[in-house]
Amino acid sequence: MAEEYVQSLARGLAVIRAFDAVTPELTLSDVARKTDLTRAAARRFLLTLVDLGYVRTDGRLFSLSPRVLELGYAYLSSLSLPEVALPHLERLVAEVHESASVSVLDEADVVYVARVPTTRIMRVTIAIGTRFPAHCTSMGRVLLAGLSPAELDAFLAGNPLERLTPRTVTSPVALRSELDRVRAQGWAMVDQELEEGLRSIAAPIRNRAGRTIAAVNLSSHASRTTLESARRDLLPPLLATAARIEADLHAAASREATP
Amino acid sequence: MAEEYVQSLARGLAVIRAFDAVTPELTLSDVARKTDLTRAAARRFLLTLVDLGYVRTDGRLFSLSPRVLELGYAYLSSLSLPEVALPHLERLVAEVHESASVSVLDEADVVYVARVPTTRIMRVTIAIGTRFPAHCTSMGRVLLAGLSPAELDAFLAGNPLERLTPRTVTSPVALRSELDRVRAQGWAMVDQELEEGLRSIAAPIRNRAGRTIAAVNLSSHASRTTLESARRDLLPPLLATAARIEADLHAAASREATP
DNA sequence: ACTCCAATGTTCGTAATACGAACGAGAGTT
DNA sequence: AACTCTCGTTCGTATTACGAACATTGGAGT
Question: Residue B203 belongs to what H/E stretch?
């Protein structure tokens, strides 16, 4: 490792990540296998995490405790965006009856920071913190379109565009031209490129300087809408919501500057 | 330290926690001061966290990246509770126009795992992961009332009941009898014991075995409601919501057992 | 019921890791 | 311009965390 690097921290965080929604309870050996650590090492990290309150155990099985949320909490609460956006998302969902979300860009992924689901039961659960590849999501397209040319070049150079469905755009050239269109029209629509049957439409949220800092979207099953109906019925309320969030965000920013 | 303990992991997590909503951007020295580490140590951990993608830096200032959410994400998404509860919270908020939340107990604190705010601007921001002392919150009272006698004894023995407002119940004896009442009546009301002007009412969410696993609440400003109006207008919808969440949760649990 | 096997969890001497004192760089003040 | 104070960085060392080896548990086979 070129840089100064604390191996134990990296390994300890890997232990936290070893737990997932499918297997929320793991034995010591399970953790060792998932993290490529020796059992002795896994044990040390687990005992440390139990001591710190991040992990619980009955002696055999280990699971995450609610305290792990505090690690993301500082980030979430420092971001005024979710707080500001939520009421507007509620209103949007009440109007169009589709799930609405807000996300930010992190490396090559979009990360959900606020979400209002419809009452419909959905196949994929999307919690705060969920990550999806930017290149094949509507919010990702909007966020990528907001990057500087240099940043976009770096993104395309560093990240292969993985094919997740037959419709996924995987050519950098094609994505570039799609991003040009998104930038020009001010919104993005993605049709079943992330997952079969999933269609979504997104709009940017910009700061005062005009830089895209987040995206808001509506997503629905392909069976419920056509591309035209989405554009006709969902786009106008979505754009109005994005504008309202932006306005509130700018107002909140001024309030902070001059309290 | 009696147990096997990885110091570097504990220190590294402390570095993550050094960031908060008030000061989301810190210099290396700021972090060192906040964590009681030497600057050299703080530097090692920060560089490691930058390398792992959990922290961003412009060279001078450090801040958390959205990736920190992934540490809490596994916990959140393994918990079916927020997913199940959210639609019911939405409905409740639409009906009574007060903010609704769901929390679980962790050590001596309640931890918010789902929340639907009203459009009203509030003084205190409550994000997912926010912690409050259990003894002086309505959800905390409901959760403490659901503990076994032995667990409650351990709680009272291990945690001094801090006075946060003049009204906070700080005597273990008084709290015990209040918890008895809460257990008998099936809900809790707390009037400005956490913060002046804040009044809230909570109900338990139980698993099939009858154990209280979470609490749902409504909170409002003392100026907007009286104790009687809260009990008359808020309690019935709150109890109905708790019942609906419980029913859905039990249904989801059976679906999981026999897919 | 007993033995054996395979997996799990734990111990402890060692070497690599992370430690912090000492150093150097940079900004603000007199 | 010289000084000072705080910041970030380096590097030899001692402590920390490492994992091979050992102990323990649970289950399959006879």
Answer: strand B198-206
CB contact under 8 A, A106 and B6: no
One domain for residues A28 and A83: no
Residue with tokens 């007060």: B98
In this structure, are A95 and A187 located in the same domain?
yes
A140 falls within a domain:
yes
DSSP letter, residue B233: I
User: Pick from B67, B93, B119: which residue ends a domain?
Assistant: B67
By residue count, chain A amounts to 259
The amino acid that residue A246 corresponds to is E
Most B CBs within 10 Å, among A9, A30, A101, A126, to test the B interface: A9
Q: Which one, of A107, A101, A97, lies nearest residue A89 by Cα?
A: A101
Instruction: Quote the strand ranges of chain A, DSSP E.
Output: 26-27, 55-57, 61-64, 99-106, 109-116, 131-133, 188-191, 198-206, 212-221
- CA A24 to C1' C6, in angstroms, rounded, equals 25
Question: Alpha helices, DSSP H only, in A186-234?
Answer: 227-229
Rg of chain A on CA atoms, in Å: 21
CB contact under 8 A, B48 and A16: no
User: A130, A99 in Cβ contact below 8 A?
Assistant: no
Q: Which residues of B touch A72 (CB under 8 A)?
A: 68-73, 129
On whether both A93 and A49 belong to a single domain, the answer is: no
Domain count along chain B: 2
C-alpha–C-alpha distance, residues A13 and B49, integer Å: 10
Tell me the residue length of chain B. Answer: 259
CB A96 within 8 A of CB A218: yes
pLDDT digits over B170-221, tens only?
999 999 999 999 999 999 999 999 999 999 999 999 999 999 999 999 999 9
Does A75 reach chain B within 8 Å, measured CB to CB? Answer: yes
Domain coverage including residue B161:
79-257
Tokens 């927020």 sit on residue: B82
CA-closest candidate to residue A241, choices A196, A165, A187, A178: A187
Instruction: Map residue B14 onto helix, strand or coil.
Output: helix
User: Do the domain assignments include residue A1?
Assistant: no
- The answer to whether the Cβ–Cβ distance between A73 and B128 falls below 8 Å is yes
CATH (domain of B145): 3.30.450.40
Of A20, A39, A66, which residue is a domain's last? Answer: A66
Contacts of A172 (CB under 8 A, 6+ apart): A156, A161
Task: Tell me: do B20 and B100 sit in the same domain.
Answer: no
- Strand C closer than 7 A to residue A58 Cβ: no
This model of the complex carries an ipTM of 0.92
Separation in Å, CA A73 to CA A255, B68, B99, B242:
23, 9, 19, 26
pLDDT along chain A (259 residues), means of 10: 76 95 92 93 94 93 95 89 92 93 97 88 77 98 98 96 97 97 98 95 96 97 91 97 96 70
